Amino acid sequence: MQQTPNKLEVRHSPSTADLGDNHIEFLHRLKAPTWITVDGKDRSRTRAIVTLLHGNEPSGLKAVHTILRERLVPATNLIIVVAAVNTALHPPILSHRFLPWEEDFNRCFKEPCNTSQRQLAAEIESRLTDAAPEAIVDTHNTSAHSEPFAVAVNDHLSTQQISQMFSHKLVVIDQHLGTLIEKTSDVSPVVTVEFGGLMDPSADQLAFESLVSFVTKQHLFNTEPAPLHILHHPIRLEIDESSEIHYSSSVQDDADLTIVNTIDQLNFQTVKAGTNIGWLGRTGLDGMRAVNAQGDNLFHEFFHDVSGFLTTKQQLTIFMATTDPYIARKDCLLYFTPTAP
Ligand SMILES: [Zn+2]
């Protein structure tokens, strides 16, 4: 079985021939996780874009391909990390978040470095630490429909100034998950940007326009902070990995849980107490958890069983709700924060 390589390839200012005509050709030419550098107008400063930590999330990849191909001269030196190239190339192309026999790569930025993926993550972290960029942006797409939003581990002014270039929504996570942003937040202001759904053309357009601005703007930190909608202390709604979960508008008999397949329409919406978000199955509420950063299970504060529905008990703001049962089981169903009615 093919493993993610444990080392980065390194390229400086790739030629047009190295880049191919489109992002698919670009992947075929890169072949492996790659660290790309481009000289900027001001060579005393550096910015970094990390893309494709998840192999099926192409908006950032398309944007950096166009930026490189159009030979845009960045305002500062630029680092582009195209991470899980091997995962993206595993057929069918751009279809795997991570390889089924490996870990989610954006959970590999932690010790111990006992797998090739974690060694690769450590090299990315160590090179970013050495380069000390003035800002790092990590580009993603959501697995379901969502407005764009940024994710960070703090809401410092510099984090807000980077976030507002991409979205007016900032989620501040305090969970220890093993993501790039947790590992690099001491090095530089760093945000993950979820540009929107992975097949959504407006996500591609936002990624291109905002990343061009990120790359070419002379100064990132002299702007007035814009009013941001900041969501603190998100709670993860999780289900046992062995559960049978479906997304549908009707219930299949063998499901432990059926979530309404339009749940993603609730992303960033205020959801009132008493809202049914799905149907409970054989196992009822067993196997479900609502976990905060301290690891406390707050499930029964926020959800209950009302006539067989999974129903909210308090007013919540829901975000990052997926409609992909695999991600729901492997990661979580959604994040939420309580909101005052
Ligand atoms: Zn992602």
TL;DR?
The protein is of the alpha/beta class. Helices cover 24% and strands 28% of the residues.
Which structural traits does this protein have?
341 residues; alpha/beta; Aminopeptidase; nine-stranded mixed sheet; 10 helices; 28% strand; binds zinc ion
Any overview of this molecule?
With 341 residues, this protein is α/β, with parallel strands linked by helices. The longest helix has 16 residues, at 116-131. The chain has helices spanning 16-19, 23-30, 59-69, 85-89, 116-131, 157-163, 180-184, 201-216, 299-302, 325-330; strands at 9-12, 34-38, 42-51, 76-82, 135-142, 149-152, 169-172, 190-197, 229-232, 235-239, 245-248, 257-260, 270-271, 276-280, 288-291, 303-306, 309-312, 316-319, 334-338. The protein is built from 10 helices and 19 strands. The chain starts with 8 loop residues before the first strand and ends with a strand. The mean pLDDT is 96. The chain folds into 2 domains: 9-231, 3-Layer(aba) Sandwich (Aminopeptidase); 235-338, no CATH class. Helix 3 crosses helix 8 (201-216). The strands form 3 sheets. It has a 9-stranded mixed β-sheet with strand order 1-2-4-3-5-8-6-7-9, sandwiched between helices. Bound molecules: zinc ion. Zinc ion is lined by residues 54, 57, 140.
